[in-house]
Structures are given as structure tokens and as C-alpha cells.
Amino acid sequence: MMSKLIKDGAIVANEWQLLDKPESASAAVPAGKVIVHLSVWLEQKDTLISRSDIGVWLDNVDTADLLGSDAQQLPLVAVNFPVFMDGRGFTAARLLRERYGFEGELRAIGNFIRDQLCYLKRCGVNAFACSDEINMEAALASLNDFSESYQVAIDTPLPLFRRRA
User: Fold this and answer.
1) pLDDT tens-digit readout, 78-123
2) Topology of the domain comprising 4-164
3) 35 within 8 A of 78, measured Cβ to Cβ
4) pTM for this prediction
């Protein structure tokens, strides 16, 4: 049975396989839509870059700068949240969108909580691989917890006072 995720405001089937971080970055990468750890991408980039079915995941200690403009060539980048109190993934997501021009699927993976989805969306995350404990329908609704925001973000490039002018 294929798992589900929230992508672009809808609950959809997850077509990608997330590969664990291997002991060796030179580990074989299987065929099909797979998300490899950043270390594998960096080690095997010359081979993997020709494939359109490769995504890369960043751990909380991996900065967006390590992937950099390579992100523009990928269909999917995932950001791991090993614990819900670790906010580094928010920064990585925003940098991938703003600094590195990533336009593909930006997926949150790991231990984020439903209350964070709206904020992750504001940072540019458009896909959420929710844990089994999260009710998908409730999580989907939480993407719109706030109808208005004051600050600038990926989803709102102008502050409220400029939008009202």
C-alpha cells in the first residue's frame, strides 16, 4: 500500500521512496523515484544528475548551502525535522526557495507537528509527509489556520501594510 502525503493543498499518493542515510555515500542507488541523502548526492552527483527520478533530503545539520544551486536541477528536495523543536529546517526551506531558486517539490519529512504546517507553508514547503499519528484531513485544514499575515514570506511577498495600500 502506497503511503499518502499532503502536496499542493491535497492529499495524494506518495510516489517517492525515501532512502535512509547510508553508512557509505557510495552506496548503490536503486532505480525509480528515490530520495537520497545529501551525502549520497554530493558523492555521486556526476552519475545521478542525469536522472530525473532523484530527489535529495537534507538532515537538520545540513544547510541549504551544501546543496546550493544543484537544487534547481532536482524535482524534489526534502527537509528532515528529527524533532519538532528543531527549527533549522524552516531556514533551509526558505533559503532553497529564495536564495537558490528551487521551484520543485519541497517536502517536510520527520517529526514536525500539525501546528507547524502553516508556518512551513509560509517558508515554501509545499509537500508534507505526515507521520501516521497525524490526521491527514485535519492537517490539510491546518494549512489555512491563519487567513492573514503581517510579515513577508515565500507565500506572501508583500507585508500587510503594502497589500492594503
Assistant:
1) 999 987 778 899 999 999 999 999 999 999 999 888 888 999 998 9
2) TIM Barrel (3.20.20)
3) yes
4) 0.89
